[in-house]
Amino acid sequence: MIRVQNIYHMLAYAFQVLRGRGYRDVATEQFDNAAELCAVILSRGISSQIKRGLGREYMDRTEAISSLRGKIEVSESVKTRSVMRRQMICAYDEFSVDTRMNGILKATCRLLLHADISKARKKELRSLMVFFSDVRDVDLATVDWHMRFDRNNQTYRMLMGVCWLVAKGLLQTQADGSAKLMDFFDEQRMSRLYEKFILEYYRQEHPELAAQASCIGWALDDDFDDLLPTMKSDVMLCHGGAVLIIDAKYYSCTTQRRFDKRSIHSGNLYQIFAYVKNKEAELAEVPHTVSGLLLYAKTDEEIQPDGVYRMSGNRISVRTLDLGLPFESIRMQLDEIAETHFAREAHCSDVG
């Protein structure tokens, strides 16, 4: 079972802004559930955004107005008889706060008002809604979350990330098109956060390692790669000639059962093996070692994956990360993975 407080730490690594002065005391607060945590983060983030100014964009407007503005739509004005009301249909650009991202913030706060959070949190969110009076409502179930960020809206990146977690965690669309609240953070949502957290942890806490989510090319006998899937690692750690590919897995069940026997998920094992062997082929011209690690988030199952295997000359490990422990213990587990692996590889190179 993951601690709610650890969700904050995971978010703080995924979005570094959460490690800033305005959020530091969040790390010491206790929360009853993840919705409460996200409500606090959004409340502080939106307050900060309001102080610097809500984002604005030029929006296309076409409406009947009394004072002429922009381009007059003569045919539409005649058709709607707006002249009879001493108005004309005009098309113009307006520099407005009624943007998609502001609409998402407003809709997410409204959604949280129906969640299991304290009255004090709800009061904070309601007080912020005053600043969104000119922002139209957005249907979170239809939002396209693939957004482009630039220097003008960079401060919205974390806010949109938390909104995505809230919307996907609290809102579930039914077959008839209606929506209902559901339990916060399902497996899919936590899986993405878990992957991002592991990558950013090693980037920030182990600068001696090159940490990235790299694509791995297929070791082909020719150049024909039509329809082959992309191999993109969750985390790839490199130091000298040593490479460790980590596949971060967040499942409700860390093992599979077949014929009354527990085993590692076969698809996961095939995947990490393919990553390792193709990366090894990619580095064939330079001295190197390539290893793989399946890093599962620990569950409450009786059997937890834990083992080291030698496969075709490569080391493939399977471990679990206990997210139910205090964060300092999680930090120690992650540090031990990196230090043990690269110390061993350095020792092997010296012996060689």
TrEMBL record:
- What Pfam families does UniProt report for this protein, alphabetically? McrBC
Q: What's the EC number here?
A: 3.1.21.-
Keywords of this protein's UniProt record, alphabetized?
Endonuclease, Hydrolase, Nuclease
Record-linked InterPro entries = McrC, McrC_bac
What enzyme class is recorded for this protein? Answer: hydrolase
Q: Which GO terms describe its molecular function?
A: endonuclease activity; hydrolase activity
Q: Name one GO biological process term.
A: DNA restriction-modification system
Full protein name:
5-methylcytosine-specific restriction endonuclease system specificity protein McrC
Organism (species): Gordonibacter urolithinfaciens
Gene name per UniProt: mcrC
